[in-house]
Amino acid sequence: MSRFVDTMVATAVGAGGRERGMTTGEPGEPVRRTWAEVHERATRVAGALVAGGMTRGASVAVLAGDPAAIAPAVQAVWLAGGSTTMLHQPTARTDLAEWAEDTLRVLRMIDAELVLLGTPFDALSAVLDQHGVAYRRLDELDGEPLAAPVEVDEDMPALLQLTSGSTADPKAVRITHGNLWSNAEGMRVAAALDPGSDVMVSWLPLFHDMGMVGFLTVPMLLGIELVKVTPPDFLARPTLWPDLISRYRGTITAAPNFAYAIVARRMNGVDDDAFDLSALRIALNGAEPIDPVAVKAFTDAGARFGMPPECVLCAYGMAETTLGVAFAPLFSGLAVDWVDPGELEAGKRAVPVAPDTPNARAFPLNGPPLPGLEVQVVDESGAVRGEREVGQLRVRGEAVTPGYLTVDGPLATQDADGWLDTGDEGYLVDGQVVVCGRRKDVIIMGGRNIYPTDIERAALSVPGVRAGNAIAVRLDAGTRRERFAVVVESKLAGEDDAVKALSKEISARVVDAVGLRPFSVVVLKPGSLPKTPSGKLRRSSAASLVPAAG
Fold first, then answer.
1. Beta strands in 379-469 (DSSP E)
2. Which residue in 507, 413, 536 sits closest to 164, CA to CA?
3. CA nearest 388: which of 427, 434, 346?
4. pLDDT digits (tens, 9 = 90+) for 149-200
5. pTM of the full predicted structure?
């Protein structure tokens, strides 16, 4: 039996499983179930799946919104010897015909035997019926408890994690039982997780690796108390997040950068006694480039409520390593490496400078690699680069996926020596990982490598630009020199004079930051920027929003 399943079962039937569990249903009617109760329900679902013909190694997709239903469902699939894929969920703005086409492509790609369907997506059963997709309703799955887990090997798939933006051209990361166990153990050690005292609070989507692995699988595996709500709950009232941390004495939470920017602004508008965030020891920031300005806004806003600023934990992660790659040292807060912009852009070297150096670039230190992983920086030819030399980041270790599933078949991820190319540029300093940006997004102008995050941070500093909603895009140069544009969201969209003034100020701030003027600035109404199902901005799609040049 895999170490992952062994540990999950041992936790559920032990004292920790009987004492600790997950609370769902906030902010309406909260319900708490112990991990033992989740496991008992999972054994009955697993029994029904096996009795219904599910085979060892089967690929099972899950489409449900309620974490209380999802937790026993995914555990049941693992107990029955299968792998789980969390399907991307349609929203009120989703074109259902397009969603159905994309989802069917995903189901074919992963060779899904079955879809487990739960509220509020029961109505989509007609779509599945129309296309002959086999499914079972979660609320109807109730059989004789599975006597013992189906035996699985460490190299068998446990999770087929859809990558961000997996729609028209889907791709799934094949996470094995060994991968899942190794990364969970690495994060347990690096974050000093304590099942007896920690309380995890999260609204992250369960179809994203941070939500599924970090804030469902890990607490279920280790028996940590969990409070789980949904992304719509958070978006409807962002202050629900600090409210839950306060009421449940949350010690660990996590989110991408844009969410910290949003909640910081909202916390500034409430009374001093609205929350008590003094128990928070880890507020992990990851999943997208970390903005030191947004982090400081969050810690400044949280200080009124007793939140220790050192709780911020900068992290680097990716689905290809199951979840985590590197965690900053605990209780170190936001540590920033200030480097010379000219050396970075032209010389690909991170030469340290004083923070008040004009246009100095600020990169958060993401800490050393997690136990069981190693990170290396190489140049285009594969030669290893030295300390503070910028190059391609690659990672190796037990948590690294053996490959992807794509519409064109399996695709290996590792080279002959086991290294995975992350697709990111960065460098190492004192053993800590620093990420500069995605290689495919780098804007090359006049021999300089300009990282989009520098442009976006400049744009976001302009009043009137929505927090977390600015994209710098490289434009197809054709016969011209390389160019870039800035696309932002603002409530001022549609007001010609206000947009003109806003665009002028954005251009000025960008010139101050990187010494280059954008080809154009596009101001859109809120909700217009293309995003992945997990809420991250999609630079490649934003280029189509820039009017063609003459």
1. 391-397, 403-406, 409-412, 420-429, 432-438, 443-445, 448-450
2. 536
3. 427
4. 999 999 999 999 998 654 457 899 999 999 999 999 999 999 999 999 999 9
5. 0.90
